[in-house]
Design brief:
211 residues, 11% strand, TIM Barrel
Length: 211
């Protein structure tokens, strides 16, 4: 079966032929990898289905298994989700510790904008409406709304939509699950990033049977 296929119990997804000793030696590693990646795709698909009819996109994060990032991010795409950064060099993401070290939102944004070229996007994490208001005049490409309440998400969307011209992309993140994701998306945020897609997805049960 090709990637992204829906399966049900009893379906045959692939057939393997070859030397029996070699197949049995590779069985556990292959199944572990396949079960994990299929689990990532399946969990992603559940989030995407919950948002059916809305324009908000589901994205993974960089919270991936060492050496498996490319495969896990591909699995997210197979589940209908989208990818965040692949590495630190994809874009600048200013998080809470960066803000604290720089001395505040203003200082962090000023340093970032003065240090990068015009092709590099800048995203900044904010955890309050006050920080959001301080960041908006710098026109960041993306605003990461961390652990906001529903009312805070709504206010953030209103503030961003009041901007004339190009407005920042609003990304919601922090403690989001299948029970809360729909309500958050309905506030009008553009992207919801979920670290659990890659670091906590239940494995998908796949077995290898000889015949």
């Amino acid at each position: 079966m090709p990637d992204s296929s829906d399966v049900k119990p009893g379906d045959v997804i692939a057939k393997v032929e070859g030397n029996a000793r070699a197949i049995l030696a590779a069985e556990r590693v292959a199944l572990n990898l396949l079960c994990h990646l299929s689990g990532v795709a399946t969990l992603t698909s559940k989030y995407v289905q919950v948002l059916d009819g809305l324009t908000t996109r589901i994205a993974c994060t960089r919270k991936t298994t060492p050496l498996l990032r490319g495969l896990e991010k591909h699995a997210v795409k197979c589940g209908g989700g989208h990818n965040h950064r692949y590495g630190l060099d994809d874009a600048i993401l200013i998080k809470d510790n960066h803000i604290a070290i720089c001395g505040g939102i203003t200082q962090a944004m000023e340093r970032a904008q003065s240090a990068v070229g015009h092709t590099m996007k800048i995203e900044i994490e904010v955890d309050s409406i006050a920080q959001l208001k301080e960041a908006l005049p710098f026109a960041p490409d993306v605003l990461l709304l961390d652990n906001f309440s529903i009312d805070m998400f709504k206010e953030a969307v209103e503030l961003a939509h009041a901007i004339k011209g190009v407005r920042p992309i609003l990304e919601a993140s922090g403690g989001i699950n299948l029970e809360t994701v729909r309500a958050i998306a309905e506030t009008g945020v553009d992207i919801i990033s979920v670290g659990a897609l890659t670091h906590s997805a239940p494995v998908f049960d796949i077995g290898l049977d000889a015949y």
